[in-house]
Write a structure and sequence with these properties.
- It comes from Klebsiella quasipneumoniae subsp. quasipneumoniae.
- Keywords: Coiled coil.
- This is Ead/Ea22-like family protein.
- By secondary structure, the protein is an alpha+beta fold.
- The chain folds into two domains: about 30 residues; about 60 residues, no CATH class.
- About 40% of the residues lie in helices and about 10% in strands.
- It contains three helices and three strands.
- A three-stranded antiparallel sheet has the order 2-1-3.
- It is rod-shaped.
Length: about 100
């Protein structure tokens, strides 16, 4: 068939492009975002059911000794600009809804 060599070349090119895209996806999946040390943490002060009473059940803590009411670890608090800087440094674009 006359078109066979041309189709074969297109198939080889498409396969090459597919492999390059798979490698790029793998690179993007394994990027690491380094978080700075948080300035504060949220701690649960009583057991609640988020999100209905979320803000009644948490406080901001600046002490490393504080733990949640059940003894679990604290939740780090970051400013939005800190998160946006971390993501931008990793090459991740942030868009608002």
């Amino acid at each position: 068939d006359e078109k066979a060599p041309e189709l074969r070349a297109q198939l080889i090119e498409a396969d090459s492009e597919l492999e390059a895209l798979r490698q790029r996806i793998a690179e993007l999946e394994y990027r690491t975002v380094k978080l700075p040390k948080p300035h504060a943490h949220l701690i649960w002060i009583q057991a609640g059911h988020a999100p209905d009473d979320y803000w009644d059940d948490v406080v901001v803590s600046h002490s490393e000794k504080d733990r949640c009411c059940d003894g679990s670890e604290r939740y780090p608090v970051y400013a939005r600009w800190e998160i946006e800087e971390m993501l931008a440094a990793a090459g991740i674009r942030v868009e608002a809804e």
